Amino acid sequence: MWGRAVEQTVCSEGPAESLPFGCQGRLAPDTDDWPADLPGCLHLESSESYCDGWVDEAAARPSCHYAAASSGETAAEDARTAEEGVLFAGQASAPSAALFPRWPAGSQQRNTPPSQLNNTCFHSIATRDHLRTHLKSSRVFRLALTRGRTTAISKNGCEMQRGGFIQPCARVAFGGEADLLALGVRSGGSGGSDQRPPSSRQTVINVGVTPSPSWPKTRSQSFDEQSIAPDFRPGRSYSQSRPKKTVGTNRKMSLADQDWPAERDLAEDAQWKRIQQNTFTRWTNEHLKTVGLSIGNLETELADGLLLIRLVEVLSHKKLPKHTKRPSFRSQKLENVSVALKFLEQEEGIRIINIDSSDIVDQRLKLIMGLIWMLILHYSISMPVWDDEDREVVKETPKQRLMGWIRQKLPSDVPVTNFTSDWNDGIALGALVDAVAPGLNPDWRDWKPKDAEKNTSEAMELAREYLDVPQLLEPHELIDPNVDELSVMTYLSQYPNARLKNDAPLRKRGEPKPSKVTGKAYGPGLKGAVVGASTDFTVEPSDKKKADLVVSVLRPTGGKEAADVYFDEQSGTFGVRYTPQVDGVYKIAVVLAGKPMDGSPFAVPVSVPPVDVSKVHAAGPGLENGVVVAKPTSFDIFTVGAGKSKPDVVIVDKDGKQDTIKPVVKMIDEDVYRVEYVPVTSGLHSVNVFYDRKHITNSPFGVRVVPASFPARVRAWGRGLASRGVRVGDIADFKVSTEGAGDGKVTVFVSGPHGENVPVKQTTDATGAQRFSYAPTKPGDYVVQVKFDGEDVAKSPYQVAVGKPTDLRIRAFGPGLEGGMSNLPANFTVETNGEIGALGFSIEGPSKAKIHCTDNKDGSAEIEYLPTAAGEYEVHVLCGDEDIKDSPFMVEMDEFRDGLRPSLVKCHGQGLQRRGAVKCDKPAEFTVEARGAGPPEIKPKIWVLDKELQPVNVQVLDNGDQTYTCSYLPHAPVKHNVIVSYGGIAVPGSPFRVQVEEAVDPSKVRVHGPGVEPGVRSLQPTHFVIDAKNAGPGEVEVALSDALTGGAVDLDVLDNHDGSFTIKYTAPRPGSYQLRVVFAGHDLLPIQINVQPHLDVGGIRVEGLDN
After folding, report:
1. 414-434 pLDDT, tens digit each
2. What's the CA gap between 1107 and 78, in Å, rounded?
3. Residues in domain Calponin-homology (CH) (predicted)?
4. Do the Cβ atoms of 683 and 101 come closer than 8 Å?
5. Residue 443 Cα to chain centre, angstroms
């Protein structure tokens, strides 16, 4: 920002009782004449010292400071500053749009009432007089820190309304030589005559503010944090949220039994942090090297999830689920990390708290370190079985378990109570090495605490060489008073499973150590080196003869550097050359003739070469105004002569978010890097370019991104755009998706056969896609034109041949006409309904789809086709050459989803039986079991169609265990189709063809007539009727038997063809008879028939018996 006085302000309303975390000072008026009920203005002194990146000195005084001009500036320079544009206390004088993107050019805010200025924060360029004048009678609070001279304003110039409270809003996000970072700092490009460098280095509090309900709503009256980019630095995690009343608190991650270190220790240069990161990196590399992999930076190299997945596979000895092998998009990286985290929680039982996939992808180092620590606790301390362990460890924490094992191994006169200071002198470690392998280090009792590094180095080297204990800590790190216990626990956790090598030189205390090969190694490569610069050293055998020489150059973070070894016959010496790639202390092991040389391994410090950031510059279209939304752009970074380092780029969008754009930085030539990025929103962006964690020349760059539209990316598809199949009277619909096409409006025009306009209706579906439909009223050729932002989309205009209405009765239905997945069969059913003609099928789409047809021999057919690619398919069902009703069917196939197995779905129950089980107006139930077929969030789709393909209501009850109880109520005695799909794929047996029958009611069967009434006589023919007209469908069975003898009576059954039957019979003798009637398998109540003799003996008179 050019000008002679630069200021950024921060304020919020609230109790004046807390300072930013890390600051020292207070907020309170402390002068005799300062009103007791008025707050003071916070005064920050300029300071050359910093504490962990925060302001080191603050004091409360009744005065306001602002960033004034450097010493020696004149009033004329101040006046020139005012001419360039002044914005303060609600007043602006024609600031440029590039300089103040949130203020329209030429806006005038003069004479703004003080009531509208309360609690307003401003981004200000002001001279001393302006500030003094306009601070009166307002509650505007300015807070700035200048590394040059500051000018105080008296308390009389800072009169504030009574009852106001002031407090800093958030942390000071800067340190060292950091520049001001603000959106709109420059207009982009290579600069111009008006771009003068600032006159003094500014260190500015640059944070968001907490709005008050009383803040002005007018955009030109307030300046919020969305126009201020935070002070980004590589390797940090930033938050763009508005600060809360309590500042300085970070999210706390819960670990298994260890709290993370206090936030005050999290400075970039905290010693314990560097030691811990190195230790965790080496531990990770010890496991990754078993599969030929390594990691250099835990913060960045786990972001795509691939190395994390491989690490978890190595640790668990299990194969993780399918994941993206080459993740390019953020969503793919998040999914990969989620695969690993989900596996650790569900399969390995590791409870992960407050860490999700976005933390790893967004490279939040603190949480990444927390995740690695969880893995160390589980796989290196909690889970392994230790041979010598005889303690009860079931109820112990991992820390207690490890400490218990160590105490069990160590002699009683070596007290160890912690994992930090007790290990600083190396004696306890030497004792542990000898305890694990008695005789390997018997002289540890003679060691002196003052020889801490020598003791530690010797113990670690013995453990590494003869016990195979990886050197996860460097000697100088273990003896560091600031070493953290997590690092020490990680290193010591390797000892319980240590195994002594057969060639280990065991001896008694006082015996001489095994002699090493005579000779010497010397040269600059053993004294120190610089990253990226080749160095060498010489190995000189004492006999000047060639022998087997093995040189191992070990990185501080694990892994090896390549070393070139050659022998000079003339001098009898070896030459060794290597090129270190990382900074830190390298270990160079020199083994001659199978034995280590004296002094091996050599500790060689490797430093980063000095970097001159002023020699780095950047240029390219990606740094100029006019970059287009969604269109890739790039720029180049040139680092010739700047020294060894890597560039880093952070792009802040117009809303102040730094994670919406992920720039890709790649080396295209020596000392030349190409940065590619794709902006996703329009507006002013801040492109921050760092080299060696410092801003390069002219960084940050202000880049204005303009909206873009890409009609070629618009997708339009649907039956209403099909070249054939649409008929008069149809509703021809289609949808339009503008995802990824930028800003623009969709317009649709439909013209009829004679060029007439056809009305078009527009709606929006649940997915946000726009749907359009039209109704053709006459046959002929129609033209559908789809435009986006005034331009035709791909394939537009569409030619649609509309046919006459059809009387074909053929219908098609099923999940294969609605959707599905690639590489899974799609099924549907065709019902001919008595139509005569040859069926045909045509499928058009992104892949060929083999079609298989099965004739059901009942006037229907099952069709199956196999799409091999995702996308939209057009399925034509033809009778002869004519499309049936609703053809073509527009089907969208998704990508195949791992873990989806529709073939495992089972369906069973009375409601699916083909015949005899389902009755009209009676609920029919069945069950769908989807256990093991896919994830619980996928639900089966179930629908029932009658003969006319009209839907029948289905009630589905989710039982909560991936089983579903289904019920439907048919109303017609016709064939029904029950269709069940899972993930858009038909399940085995679907569609289920169910013949619904009329309901049977035996109680409505009537038996009547003279043959079942009183007065039946033997040897006389009679009859009765069985009436089942209203009882429903069913067979009638009838039997008449003699109750005395059990003999059957012959019956003559006549079908009246109206649901009734006439039964004729003749009883052979008088007596009791039983009539049995069965209807549809149901027994009716038996009927008793009393048969009288065929003669009436009561009318017979007998005479002549008197004689």
Report:
1. 989 999 999 999 999 999 999
2. 170
3. 274-380, 396-500
4. yes
5. 55
